Each structure stands twice: as C-alpha cells, then as structure tokens.
Amino acid sequence: MPEGHSVHRIANQFTRHFVGKRCEVSSPQGRFAAGARELDGKRMVAARAVGKQMFLEFEGDLFLRVHLGLYGAWDFAGVISSAEALSEDGDGEESLSSIGAPRLARYRMAEQERAADPIEAFPPDPVGQVRVRILTEDTVADLRGPTACVVEDPAGVQKALDKLGPDPINDDGPEAEKTFVENVRKRRVAIGQLLMDQAVVSGIGNIYRAELLFRQRIDPYKPGNELTVKQAKALWHDWSELLHAGVRDGLMLTMDGLSKADHAKAVRSRKDRHWVYHREGEPCRVCGTEIRMADMAGRKLYWCPKDQK
DNA sequence: CATCGATGTTGAG
DNA sequence: TCAACCTCGATGG
Question: How is A125-193 classified by DSSP, letter by letter?
Fold first, then answer.
C-alpha cells in the first residue's frame, strides 16, 4: 500500500488538475451515493495530504477524507500525460508539448504508479468497483478499494489531524523534530513499532520502517526511551530526506550512493531498491550476514542482526 | 486459472 | 490478537 510519498503525489495531482474546478461527484459502485450527493456540483478549493490521509476540500466547508488502506488506488484519466504523472519537476509540460497534441490517457496512482494507457473516449467507463468518481470537463479521478472515504466538516478534519504525528512534507521545522523526538523517547515500546504508529510520525509504512532503521543502524527492538536524542533526530531527518525523494521521484528507493548502473537497476526492479526489506535469508549488502525477518505487532519486520545494534 | 500475500487501519472480542 | 476490508500482482499448476 501506498506509504506517505504516494499520497502526497496524489494530492499534488488533485491540486494541479482539479482544484479550482467544478466537480461532478458520483459513486458508480453505489456505496458512497449519499456522500457523493453532498459534494456533487461543488468546486474543489484545496487538496492536501498528511501522512497517508488525504483531504479534498470543496466549497461550503466540506471535505472528502480518503485513506487508501492496503490496496486502495486512484485512477486518473483525461488530458494528462503520463510523464506529468510520473515526475513532479515541471517537465511534464515539456513532454506534453514535445509529443504534440495532448492525448487522452489513463494512469493509476497507488503504491506503484502505472504508465498511461490510451483511452478511446472521455470520460472512460468506470473499471471495477469505483467508490467515487470525480469528474471535471477534461479530467476524471476514480477511487477504488479505500479503507476510508468520508465527507467531513472542519471539526471532523481536525479530529483526524489530531491523531497524526508530524509529517516532514508539511512541517520540516524544529517544532516537528521536537515533537517526533519526544514521541519516540517517552515510550518503552520498540522503535520498530513506534515508527509504524501514525500518532508518533505520519506516513511511514513497513518498507520505510525497515529501511530507516537499517540506514541508521538501529536495532528495531530497542525501546524508544533508550534511543539517544541524537539517534531520534537522525531518524527524523532521514525520514524527511527519504520522503522528499519519494515525492520527487514517485519511487521508494531507499539506497543511496549507487553507481549509475545500480541506480538504473533499482529503478527497474523492486528487489534491487532496498537494504533489508523483503530480503530475509539474503546476505546483508554491507556485512554479508543473513537478513532476518520476524513478526512485530502483526507486520513483517526485516533487519540485519549484525549491523543494527 | 486458483491461490496467496501485501507498501494499512479499524473494530470486535 | 485477529478478522475484515474486497484489489491485484506474483506465483504455481
């Protein structure tokens, strides 16, 4: 499932293509019919992500709160190039004009972003169980399989935000760092578990959890209150770096200092992207020790028993 | 083609 | 602690 970086990228797509426009909101599947009626015909005024939660604001103080959960996904279609979907740095416009006329396309944004398929007509028919369809004159977004899809008032949004720890995309200042360090160091719970707790810090999932702890050489079983301030600060800053890179690249690449060839390999193949995630039984890329795997609070934990002490 | 497991969270017990 | 959510790519026949 999407970790924090994908959700920010999705919010960015809404900002770029939907904010400011009048939206036809419907529920082709029917399970969100009442909510869709509340939003239908309203203008979207803002799109924002905090951790793995996304908030689409519509005129009249109405918000659509969406959490993709384990297998939720957004499909976008319309006059949008895939290059634009797959990069954030503005060259989407360039490739659009270099191709010539904009073409109709559909692409998916979930834990992985899938390249665009051409579509015949706009808007395309909904594929599968579409909980919500948001349609403007030239773009459409279909939501499938979310854990949460709820219309909220400002108080409801605040309630959701109150459950979330800091997100380095929204707040990279000293206050956020302080909050994270306190959240980690006040509890006796294992740091491997604390990083997955969205009240401690927002947006980290199972891959980033394993990789951050390896990058900082921290034993996942070490209780939060036994981490030094220096270790906690290092985790926060490394999370900020990984998250910004993930939002920029649309890719969870948690190894750095790679040669050009290794970088290309990592972009191509998922199993060449990580230090320890999903590598149980394989040799540690640093010391050769077998990477271990164990259950921690119902999720699989991966680590190097030699490097992480 | 059937089955499994997943980058997540909630709520029942 | 565990099932449910109810998607879909990977895996095995």
Answer: PP-S-EEEEEE-SSEEEEEES-SEEEEE-HHHHHHHHHT----TTT--SHHHHHHHHHHHHT--SBHHH
